[in-house]
Design brief:
Blueprint lengths: L19 H5 L3 H14 L5 H12 L5 H13 L4 H24 L4 E2 L2 E2 L1 H27 L3 H27 L4 H25 L5 H25 L12 H4 L5 H9 L2 H13 L4 H14 L1 H20 L6 H15 L3
Antiparallel strand pairs: 1-2
Helix pairs in contact: 2-5, 4-5, 4-8, 4-15, 5-6, 5-7, 5-8, 7-8, 8-9, 9-14, 9-15, 11-12, 11-13, 11-14, 14-15
Length: about 350
């Protein structure tokens, strides 16, 4: 039977209900304006492309990355036109990568909606991703936002490298913890880091401040991804695990810990099951149960909170503002979220 809870020692934090509405309060006006400007930025004179763009905008998520852009800008200054462009650049390139990812992963759904490739096939999806990428590049070049362009372009490069590194290591089932952290730093944390850095760069040329914002985003991104890892094994709040990462042979911190701590016989069983029986629900459930019993969930949870604390420590170097308070709530939100 798969365990769905554990006596995990979590850091003492004041439990409170954190809502996105509260987090967005200092930047709600900016987010509302951004939503309208983003719709305009993706419009096209080609009817088919415009139809796809309308569909993409309509199903946009929580706008987490634009939130990081605006909040980081407000840590030391006021939002400017360049901040709006930075937010659009981040969102354009992020959306482009999501469209391309769905093609690579042959995924038919994202956030409960049909993916672009599911509705319009792979060829159109790839071209739509290219279009979004080009709109982002042109937005930056036309306004000479070269610093933001450099920051975001580096993130997209790292995201691609991280994805390829994961594919390579997953095939070999290379389970070094160092490799895992490099993969998630590139795949997930790099874009959140870029959003924070681009927001800061839109209001200052101070290299140290921009670097601090980038590091803040990186710590947040790593803790965010570890939280996603934990969802795969179930939690006290969610209960039922998914086992999706195991089925896709993706390395996750709880699993890496369990395998590396296992005795030779158990390690061989785990690796063999992941390689050959990853589609078998009962076998996957056995792996999940083993990971819980091995302490893998507790280990990963502690790592998540450690990176979160490092993010708090960086945030504390900035002046006390409403934006700082919201950023702290946003960091708590991404590590305490239920999905």
């Amino acid at each position: 039977m798969v365990r769905t809870n554990s006596n995990i020692k979590q850091p003492t934090v004041k439990k409170m209900t954190i809502s996105l509405k509260d987090i967005k309060a200092p930047i709600q006006k900016e987010l509302d304006s951004f939503e309208e400007s983003f719709k305009e930025s993706v419009k096209s004179t080609v009817p088919l492309l415009d139809k796809v763009m309308y569909y993409i905008v309509k199903r946009k998520g929580k706008q987490m990355r634009p939130m990081f852009v605006f909040l980081c800008a407000k840590l030391i200054g006021e939002v400017e036109e360049s901040t709006f462009r930075a937010a659009s650049l981040v969102e354009l390139l992020h959306t482009a990568t999501l469209v391309h990812d769905d093609v690579v992963d042959d995924s038919n759904k994202r956030r409960g909606f049909f993916s672009v490739n599911a509705l319009w096939k792979n060829k159109i999806a790839v071209l739509v991703g290219d279009y979004l990428l080009s709109r982002g590049l042109l937005l930056a070049v036309d306004n000479e936002d070269f610093q933001a362009l450099k920051i975001i372009s580096k993130a997209v490069k790292e995201m691609s490298e991280g994805e390829l590194l994961q594919i390579q290591k997953s095939r070999l089932l290379n389970l070094e913890e160092e490799v895992y952290f490099e993969i998630i730093r590139q795949k997930t944390a790099s874009l959140i880091s870029a959003a924070c850095a681009a927001g800061m760069a839109s209001v200052t040329d101070d290299a140290h401040q921009i670097k601090q914002a980038a590091l803040l985003g990186e710590k947040i991104g790593i803790s965010f991804q570890i939280k996603d890892d934990l969802f795969d094994f179930g939690t006290e709040d969610i209960g039922k695990p998914t086992g999706i990462d195991i089925k896709e042979k993706k390395l996750s911190l709880p699993l890496i810990y369990a395998i590396n701590k296992a005795e030779k016989k158990q390690r061989k069983w785990l690796i063999n099951t992941i390689k050959k029986h990853n589609e078998d629900k009962e076998k996957v459930a056995e792996i999940i149960s083993y990971v819980w019993k091995s302490g893998g969930i507790e280990y990963a949870t502690k790592a998540m909170y450690r990176y979160r604390q490092e993010a708090f420590d960086i945030l504390d170097t900035f002046p006390d503002t409403a934006a700082k308070k919201s950023l702290r709530m946003l960091i708590e939100y991404v590590t305490e979220r239920k999905k």
